[in-house]
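protien #1 (seq + structre)
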Amino acid sequence: MVMLATVRIGAIHSVVFAGFGAHALGDRIVASGSRLVFTADVTWRKGKEIDLKTIVDDALATPGHVVEQVIVLERGTRTALARVDGDGRVDLANSSADVIGSVARFLAEHGWRRGMPTHYAIEPPSEIIDRALLLVPDVVPSFSAAQMVERGARLDESAMQHEGPLALIELLNAEPPPHYVAGTQNFYALTRYNASSYYALAVIELGRAVGAIR
């Protein structure tokens, strides 16, 4: 999402492999003359958690850089990892119980509500201004169903009965027109792991497919 945003505003940027060590990363930061660094706090490789923020901190110890600010996406893994299978350690590579428990804890810490749908069907406002206003908060649920209807959106009866705010989610397809859904708090919780709405919807559809064959 950061890369897409920088492309959209025309900013010069450099995408760096997350597997680089601090020295290699520092050399690239200096060579590129970067003033801003975006990173996640952690990532994973073969079930092992990699502390990206520490690597960035060490990289910025390299003399000669002109970085003014570091922006960190907190994915919350340090508190979300769970020891569930009773062996006293977190093993995301070999313990399905630890994986499921960690995912459940992560979602709970980001506001997941049991039994709440992730999204509803919606027909967005036909007026460009009204549609744009509903899209401003992005994936953050900010409008009641009634407020969306006031702006010209159309929701089915189940969505109108939803308790809590909704977000108008725009999904751009390979060919127009875009697809829209009304995202709930649970849709938003999924985007706290990966900020992409496409990712969240893929996870939802995968979950439904797995549930259908159980």
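ok now protien #2
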Amino acid sequence: MERNGHTRILDSNRVVARNENNEPEFLIALLEDITERRQLSSDLENTKKFLEMIIDNVPIALDVKRVSDGQYLFVNRSAEKIFNREREAVIGCNLSAVTFPFPTYGVIVPRLFTICSFQRASTAEFWINEEGLRMLGRGTAVH
């Protein structure tokens, strides 16, 4: 449909009204102009893709975890390098479920989490040095 020389997008809903004998009497149609809603939806999707591209390509490791269970919801490319895993292997796992190729990780991390829990810290951040690689592990202590 066109209005003022511009094409408009319409959404239509139709219902058949019936009489007491269940015979069709007439058709009720509701037309709604959804042009602006469709444009806003498209703009939002483009903005989302742009921000995802920026976040995915920053040279800093970024991850998003769910507070309730610590599962990773998002991992960018830099974080993939630190985890030494593709994001598909990390997303849906928590820190303890992600296996690192360092034998000392299994000893250091539980001890640090225990110390942080004892001190009632909300977040523990620490470096693990092994073969010249630095890794930042984060975990939330239970209060």
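Strands lie at 2-3, 6-7, 10-18, 24-33, 63-65, 72-75, 123-130, 133-140.
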